[in-house]
Design brief:
By secondary structure, the chain is an all-alpha fold. 78% of the residues lie in helices and 0% in strands. It has helices at residues 9-42, 48-60, 62-73. The protein is elongated and about 50 Å long. InterPro entries: TAXIMIN_1/2 (IPR055283). Keywords: Membrane, Transmembrane, Transmembrane helix.
């Protein structure tokens, strides 16, 4: 085995509860993104909606970032 191990089931299992919280944040992010996109399309003066939509996109990606971080913390 090399130093770089891709299979870390313990990190995955420990990270599952935190990933579930991330999924909830992702759902909230999707709702915020849809609202910000609709406001941005209806009225172009809502330039701040673009920033809110970008933050919402980072919330949508949260579960993947969380589980990746947890699996990297646990050694093989």
């Amino acid at each position: 085995m090399g130093d770089d191990c891709d299979c870390r089931p313990l990190g995955f299992l420990i990270g599952l509860p935190f990933m579930l919280v991330g999924v909830l944040l992702s759902v909230i992010g999707m709702v915020i993104w849809v609202i910000a996109t609709l406001l941005g399309c209806c009225c172009p003066c809502f330039i701040c909606c673009a920033g809110i939509a970008n933050i919402a996109l980072s919330l949508i990606k949260a579960p993947f970032k969380i589980i990746t971080w947890f699996t990297k913390q646990i050694p093989c």
